[in-house]
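pinning this so it doesn't scroll away 📌
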Amino acid sequence: MKKVGYHNSITRKLYLSLALMLSLSLSSYAQEAAPAATATPADATAAPAASSGGDAVKGKEIFNTNCAACHKLDAKATGPALRGVGAKYEKAWIYKWVHNSSDLIKSGDAQAVKVFEANNKIPMTAFPQLSEADIDNIIAYTMEEKAAAPAAPVGGEKVPGTDANTGGISNNVILGALCLVMAILIVMLVLVNNVLRKVASANGIDVVLKEPKISIWKAFVKNQFLVLVSVIFLMLSGAYFVYGYFMQVGVDQDYSPIQPIHYSHRIHAGSNGINCNYCHSAARVGKSAGIPSLNVCMNCHKNISEVSDTTATAEYSKDFYDKEIAKLYKAVGWDKDNQKYTGKTEPVKWVRIHNLQSFVYFNHSQHVNVAGVECQTCHGPVQTYEVQKQFAPLTMKWCVDCHRKTEVKMEGNEYYTKIHEQLSKKYGVDKLTAAQMGGLECGKCHY
């Protein structure tokens, strides 16, 4: 038989190349992983500095309960910053000041008068209920050193614990090996095909070529029934999608614009449990819920110039929230260092989210006060929203369906007593829906 070449030697060379590259990749990975496995990590938690005469842990709890409304550790609020206060004043004087600062000032104590005048002459609330041991605990908490912010990685250095592939083979090594194997298989298939053709040619075997077949598109065009069915299907599908598109004109469900000042309902209504009607007080008495005045924000934020560490999320950092509060201060002209207004204000151009058509009438007070509808019914679980969005489609169908399902609350609502007695007999029901009481009349919403 005729010789067809040394294809076996080529295959051996390819296998040897694959083995060599895999061994080099694994050895390089082992060299990279070895230092990480043998390195001795620094102690995760260092022992806190000892505070004589008090428990810092208990002090933090007492501080957050009694002092945090007016004081911060490292920034001035209504009162001065309290970090290291134990080193500034004698304990005996601090006891008297905390128990009743007003009496201490009236007694003519020079130090008390100086502190009082340095803080805009704002009197401090008396805490006679705090024992000297409680005050010692607070002092111990204020004497703790401020935790240093973690240093940013330098020169592309990876932060320990952030590599998702730690403890296993690198994804790049695995992908590289798979690509190499696929390339070798393709080369081997080409070589085998060439060898088989040479063997067939040497033995006088003719390779039968496949007969050309008609194109599927040509066959489809010749079948008139399939063409007719396809045209009808495309026309119906097109009409369906065009109808759906036009029905969504003016529907802005899930619309969530970026506001000039980031406001998190998750923090305010969720974590802090602030009632919706506190900020949107107009919803109880008027047609529109209204945009809360910035003065409402400042009722709390005079003393809240930064958020707690637990407020931050993976998407929004503590620094981000603190900068948004700074925008609020700039808008109202609040000087947090001196705790007073500067008189320089800037308007905040909020972006409207819920916007009904001009020919639609909707009254918040009628739904909130009379009907007792919860805010979440129309606005969704706002207490979970980081960025407020339009929850409901606010279409006519959506409103009509709500009127058909919602029963009118009669308890303590004398306005509807007489009409309820008449209509309940007419419809033979105990409770009426909004639709049965005229909620589907056109003039209710369009007049």
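📌 and the second one:
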Amino acid sequence: MTTIPSPEPRERAVLVGITSTPDIPRHLVEEYLDELKFLADTAGADVITSIIQEKKQPDPATCIGSGKAEDLAGLVEADSIDIVIFDDDLTPVQVRNLERILKCKVIDRTGLILQIFAIRAKSAQARTQVELAQLEYLLPRLSGAWTHLSKQKGGIGTKGPGETQIETDRRLVRNRIASLKKKLRAVSLQHDTQTRGRAAVPRVALVGYTNAGKSTLMNALCPEAGAYAENRLFATLDTKTRRLELKINKLVLLSDTVGFIRKLPHTLVESFKSTLDEVLQADFLLHVIDVSHPGFEEHMQVVRETLKEIGVKHDHIIEVFNKIDALDDPAILTGLRGKYPDAVFISAVRGLNLSALKETIANYVARDYKTRKVKTHVSNYKLIGYLYDHAEVIDKKHVDEDVLLTIRVHRNNLKQIDAMLKASASKNHAAANLQHHETHD
């Protein structure tokens, strides 16, 4: 008889946010805590309650102040709380002090996001990237931190290196970090080699705030993509690339990438650089926006700042407002069309306006197409075949034994065409010289 393992019990959590009027108003902190609740749910915790502390400056010892910490300790005991999650980053000292007072696990937003990435990481590359980020996050917290990361306790904050890296020797952890970085550099080099052949095809990357609907849009545009889509934050971490046919001999490579989020841990940005290379190498980006979210404009700003942080310097970005079917008031959509005249408004899940999005992509790609005339011998089947496969042949004329083709081709293909023309010219020149010498002899 096969026994099915029972799922791990969900932890009971309390969320803590800090407001500082007028810099950080209470309504904004409430919105942040709503997102933190979603993160906690994704990580496997049930949020019992949330508290907001008014404080001009975080207390160096406990972040929220000793009095508030004692009040929180009473709440933790009364409601059998397993974990307290802070929306703001905590120092190692604050974590240690809070755990001593609260007598339960304490984690901050960064630690929570790292935990979700550890749960979601499926491929070897993603697991390596997450482990690197976790170790760099935990390195300054080694002193006493491993006691709540041992196998005796499960739940949030314990998945990943904490299960095996019981040693508290900083040197060993640093050696592991160095080893992981070396491994990721090798993966990045291998990825560059594998994708070198794609250079001739225009590349488009989907970017956006987490849960904006990127994977759903990927599946809608490329039905064979099979991108994992779920109403969860960071549903997918691995980049997936598929061909998107636009017109005859006009296609793009469309890549789905990891979602961004407010306060995305810097260690994650650094360790996921090789995954985010798809964004850096793309000819242009589709910025997918969940227009039904009340804070979508702040989400847009977060994405812009994250793109800047990873090194995207161009402004070749098409804004795609998704989930328009979730808007109750048509006037909102009218106002947004006026504010963002170059944007495309769609519903990926219902397939609304996808043809308009494809047309916009095609028009964007068309800007990089050039018209060229190519003259070659009729027997140059390799070049002629390449032109028919990778370009749009507008006109064809025969001139004696040559064929003159007028083509429209993407600039990325011009280098290959020129190389093939040069090779055929050299071959013809060599043949002519050989014929000349034979005649002379």
